[in-house]
Design goal:
single chain; alpha+beta; Purple Acid Phosphatase, chain A, domain 2; Immunoglobulin-like; six-stranded mixed beta sheet; five-stranded mixed beta sheet; 21 strands; about 25% strand
Length: about 450
């Protein structure tokens, strides 16, 4: 048996100087100037919950509440076997006002990316603007979102620490976002229904400390989590899966773990048996597993960190629920006047990829990846394929063998395949658009 690699996160070896760059200088051991001219000293020891008003005043009305924990696999198997993936677009760290790329990147996302994902909701996990008390930046953000004809149920927002700068109360977030202006508050419950499957979306405010220093690294109050759990438990109607949204990562020197409020997040994840926690903040794509919950971090849509390896290319994530949760990064290229992505976008969602979430820091396999029977027929393959062109040729192959066609079914492609008589195999899906663009995705599947 090979020696297991230690689970060091990608930021574990960053220098203090690099950490300061990612937090804008708001790390323990620094002094931060507040908007009123006073100085905020860093916390020492266990900060505990800061004295804040009741978190209930920050929440919008619950759109729905769903009751007891449910997981993806608890859906009726006979029905789920014939249903396809459920897709989401995950934007994060747009940072309007941070530079020349941010607003064009948002506009590119709205004008070019989203039309290729018809009727697929966007999950926007914070740092929508660079400085939360800059009204011009908020106006640019609001004009872009409203001009695209989006609503609060199709473009679900959560606040980030930059949205709380510098006064900490997110008052402008409540005025200029779709969530705030439509009464959904700083956190709350949403839901989507796709082919009869109800997906619960829990939008968190991980900047709930109310001060610049603590919110820079993230703070999630227990009272917020308690309120959301109470709403969830009001109704016994089951859900197919739960997705939790927040801005900050749970376990890093730059996330909720620094001040210990990652415990509050995990209480919520455990209670809801969440399929995924989607977040941003570090401007780089990264996935890992905590139990059966996929922790998926999106790159920055509009503010790449040029000096930070892994965070220097702008982009977004595609997220899906099918044979378990799946997340894949899509990166932009070009400058503010010529942004593009490599079309078509290809993402295999079934069967689950054994290697999803594995990295240089973790050997843990995908807990949703179940072995398929070897030397068997009728195994199901699903893939999302997206491009501006309506004509897409999609094919698959097993371990480099001959290509076989896939069939389009609503918003995804499918095929049935024969598994080889061996321990594992690699399935590749390749898509081609008329202008000659060819892209692919591959998954490794265990056979038994």
């Amino acid at each position: 048996m090979s020696e297991k690699k230690s689970k060091r996160a990608p930021w574990a070896n960053l220098s203090r100087r690099d950490l300061l760059k990612l937090t804008g200088g708001a790390m323990a051991g620094t002094v931060v100037a507040c908007s009123d001219g006073s100085l905020l000293s860093p916390p020492t020891g266990d900060a505990g919950d800061p004295p804040l008003p009741d978190a209930g005043t920050d929440a919008g009305p619950a759109l729905s509440s769903y009751g007891h924990p449910a997981t993806i696999k608890e859906a009726d198997a006979a029905v789920a076997e014939h249903l396809g993936p459920i897709f989401f677009v995950h934007f994060s760290d747009i940072h309007i006002g941070s530079g020349s790329l941010a607003l064009p990147a948002l506009q590119f996302g709205l004008d070019t990316i989203l039309p290729t994902f018809p009727s697929i909701p966007v999950l926007a996990t914070g740092d929508l603007v660079e400085v939360g008390n800059d009204l011009a930046d908020w106006a640019d953000y609001q004009n872009a979102i409203v001009g695209a004809g989006l609503n609060a149920e199709d473009f679900i927002e959560t606040p980030g620490n930059h949205d709380a700068l510098l006064n900490g109360n997110l008052s402008n977030y409540l005025v200029y976002t779709l969530a705030g202006s439509n009464g959904h508050g700083k956190y709350g419950l949403y839901h989507r229904v796709h082919q009869g499957r109800r997906i619960r979306i829990v939008a968190l405010n991980t900047c709930s400390a109310g001060n610049v220093l603590q919110d820079s690294t993230g703070y999630l109050q227990q009272s917020q989590v308690d309120e959301l759990i109470a709403q969830i438990d009001q109704d016994l109607e089951p859900v197919h899966a739960t997705i939790v949204l927040g801005h900050h990562p749970p376990s890093s020197p730059l996330g909720l773990g620094l001040l210990g409020t990652d415990v509050h997040l995990r209480t919520l994840l455990d209670h809801t048996a969440a399929a995924a926690y989607l977040h941003g903040h570090l401007h780089m794509h990264y996935t890992n597993w905590e139990g059966k919950t996929l922790m998926a971090q999106a790159p920055s849509l509009g503010n790449p960190s040029e000096s930070m390896p892994g965070a220097d290319i702008p982009g977004f994530n595609i997220f899906a629920i099918d044979d378990g949760p799946v997340a894949k990064a899509v990166f932009h290229s070009g400058d503010a006047q010529s942004l593009t992505v490599d079309w078509p976008l290809v993402m295999i969602t079934k069967p689950a990829n054994l290697n999803l979430g594995k990295s240089l820091t973790s050997d843990d396999p995908n807990p949703w990846a179940q072995p398929l029977p070897r030397n068997s027929s009728g195994n199901v393959l699903h893939a999302g394929v997206f491009a501006p062109s309506s004509t897409i040729d999609v094919r698959y192959r097993i371990d480099g063998q001959a290509w076989q066609p896939m069939t389009k079914v609503t918003d995804y492609f499918m095929a049935e395949f024969d598994s080889p008589d061996q321990d594992s195999c690699v399935i590749t899906v390749e898509a081609e658009v008329p202008n000659g663009g060819i892209q692919s995705d591959s998954v490794e599947v265990e056979l038994a």
